[in-house]
Amino acid sequence: MSSKLKNWLLFIATCLVVILLAMLGSNITERKSESQFAYQPQVKITEFEPRNEVWGENFPRQYQSFMKTKEMNFSTMLNGNQEKDILEDSPELVVLWAGYGFSKDYNAPRGHGYAIKDIRETLRTGGPTGPGTGPMPSTCWTCKSPDVPRLMNEIGISEFYAGKWADKGAEIVNPIGCADCHDNKTMALKISRPALIEAFESMGKDINDASHQEMRSLVCAQCHVEYYFNKKEPKKGVPYLTFPWANGMTVEGAEKYYDDMNFSDWTHSMSKTPMLKAQHPGYETYQQGIHAKRGVSCADCHMPYKTEGGQKFTDHHIQSPLANPANSCQVCHRQEEKELIENVYSNQRKVKERTKRLEKILVRTHVEAKKAWDLGATEAQMKPILMDIRHAQWRWDYAVASHGGSFHAPVEISRIVTTATDKAQEARIKLARLLADLGYDKEVPYPAIETKAKAQKYIGLDMPKLEKEKKTFEKNIIPKWLEQAKAREAKYPTESVSSK
Amino acid sequence: MMFKKLIPPKQWQPVVAALIGAIVGLAIYTAYNARVGSYLSDDPTTCVNCHVMTPEFESWKHSSHREVATCNDCHVPHTSVFAKYGFKAKDGLYHSYVYTTRSEPQVIRMHEAGQEVVQANCIRCHGDQVTDAKTVAMVPDNYKHRTDRQCWECHRETPHGRVKSLSSVGLGIEQLPVQYNKKLIVPEWLKDALSK
Q: Which positions are annotated as binding substrate (chain A) (predicted)?
């Protein structure tokens, strides 16, 4: 073989090696990029994108199931997804909350899709006539919308909590959704609100240690918890959203926490008790139950996996598991659907029986305390009684405000109701003695509060006025908010992902 | 002597060195691009380098096995280190060939060698359950039934479930194994805002 031919062969062989290597390289790159299209992104989701429908373009299944939180077609024995008037059901509550917003209006919660609509429509937020007006602080928006982390990032946390509820109505318009729980790039679960992180710190824990399974409950625990507005810290005068967890996540832990700092949400207009309003300690109560102890997360039951044409995904129709026992309960429990639901109801009926009784006893404590004041009781005489009333009602409220508590931790809720009854009866024994000392030894009559209207009149609420204010607010203010929000969101960049 | 023949004449040496450099460089780049290093590990995310494996990865990740067993715990032999890497290399070369030439089937099934390995691995962990002396004594034909079938003939959903076609996970963006990235729990902006 001539050396010329040899050189040519060598040249061609080298060319081939390089071409093959380059082809392999390009093939690897190509096949890597293919995986990007296993899911087809339509738009680029920015870090603070508050519009759920934008996320929905990339995740149609999750979004469409999330949209079902607007359904109002299901009810359980105690709740469901309808806007049920609880005060109409139990007019006693009007008296228990006399002097506080909840006596005006209190509905059973509807789905997440109604978060914004419901907070605008409830009488508790009153009828603001413009910025700086109305009864509620800006803090009340915190759990309602993915606009909240966006705005917090823009203006700062304390600045977000500062001011009145009406001040931020134009900013917060999208109901609870994607950005509240998910990272925009990876869709991983994330914490978007400061209070839970701070509460973990107050217990000496680091939320960054949470496992994926724990996160499937913790994203819910950002909102479904007991909380209060701390006006002393970290910034004076600003109602800073805080969880009372420093003494642990129990009813007694929170009670001690509030007592130690001398906190009260309001003063009862009849008994003059410095009261505590339990919010909705759902997460804390769930922690006391068997499902939490076995490592079952909120999402396991409230957002079970489902399949559609072989595609498996998490059902974002967050609702009562009783609406869907096949995917929630029966994944673990092999009993009949009817039997499972009856088991839940049986626990709930038993707890409900006791709380209904307790509510009547609590009404009596307030009415009897008022009688004592009217007869000239002194502050010193009333102090131990008011403390009992405070603790009794706090425990009752804690038990009933934790929606689903009688399922999540029936034994714990029963215990709380029992100790509440104990404290309330303790107060009534002291009141009986005091009334006798004051020269009154008859039974203080139970008020005529058979309906919500009667009860509201009894505590002196001017309902027609409140409703009129609300109507004016809905007519004059809300359209302006919507307009401003629309103009703002029109400027958001929506970059579509082209597949060229 | 042979080796000497391969050395080119002096005036060609720079050119040849440059050409060899180009080839080696290209090879290194290809290896990097293909994340070749990751194949030495036991990390399940390595298996989704090739996204054909996404349904298997996803179904494993949503199964109870994810807490205790990785892909390699079941799919490669654990008899010795040589058996493990030998099997990995053999299987891996075959897989990369199939994947590169796009000849992967719609429904992926284990070959016989793989089935033997998985069966052995089921027993490796669940030995106590399948060799319980009491059941052997009480249940007729226990030994026979235990040995003439594969575990997954009955335990069909373990751990991958029955949906095995390539299209079974479409919107599963979770092929980015994000839950391992713990820093994301508190987003940067909130960390900054809280430290203020």
A: 227, 280
Taking CA–CA distances from B173, the nearest residue in chain A reads A39
**What is the mean pLDDT of the segment spanning A97-104?**
96
Q: Do B33 and A25 contact (CB within 8 A), yes or no?
A: yes
Residue B172 has pLDDT above 70, yes or no: no
Mean pLDDT value across chain A? 93
| B-proximal residues of A, 152-191, CB under 8 Å | 152-153, 156-157, 183, 186-191
Q: Around Cβ B106, how many Cβ atoms within 10 Å?
A: 8
Helix (H) or strand (E) holding B92: helix B81-100
Q: A2: Cβ–Cβ under 8 A, 6 or more apart, which residues? A: none
The average pLDDT across A399-403 equals: 92
Cα–Cα distance, A160 to A149 (Å, whole number): 10
pLDDT for the residue numbered A462 = 94
Q: In angstroms, how far is the first alpha carbon of chain B from the final one?
A: 74
Q: Which of residues 306-345 of A touch B (CB under 8 A)?
A: 307, 310-313
What is the C-alpha separation between A108 and A401, in angstroms, rounded?
10
**Encoded amino acid at A408, one letter:** H
> Nearest by CB to A34, which of B51, B167, B171?
B51
Question: Which residue in this structure is represented by tokens 């296993």?
Answer: A38
**Per-residue pLDDT, A310:** 44
CA pair distance A117, A127, nearest whole angstrom: 14
Contact indicator for B44, B71 with CB cutoff of 8 Å: yes
Chain A contact for B53 (CB, 8 A cutoff):
no
Distance from CA of B43 to the nearest CA of A (A): 17
| B162-190: b (≥16 Cβ within 10 Å) or e | ebeebebbbbbbbbbebbeeeebbbbebb
- Cβ within 8 Å of residue B1, ≥6 positions away: none
Helix (H) or strand (E) holding A471: helix A463-476
Please give the Cα distance from B77 to B117 (Å, whole number).
Answer: 6
- A263 CB neighbour count, 10 Å cutoff: 16
% helix / strand / coil in chain B, to the nearest 5? 65, 0, 30
- pLDDT tens digits for range A357-382: 999 999 999 999 999 999 999 999 99
Query: Which A residues, 60 through 119, put their C-beta within 8 Å of a C-beta on chain B?
Result: 60-62
Tokens of A98: 């006399």
Cβ(A435)–Cβ(A376) below 8 Å: no
* ipTM reported for the complex, 2 dp: 0.75
Query: Residue B179 has what pLDDT?
Result: 47
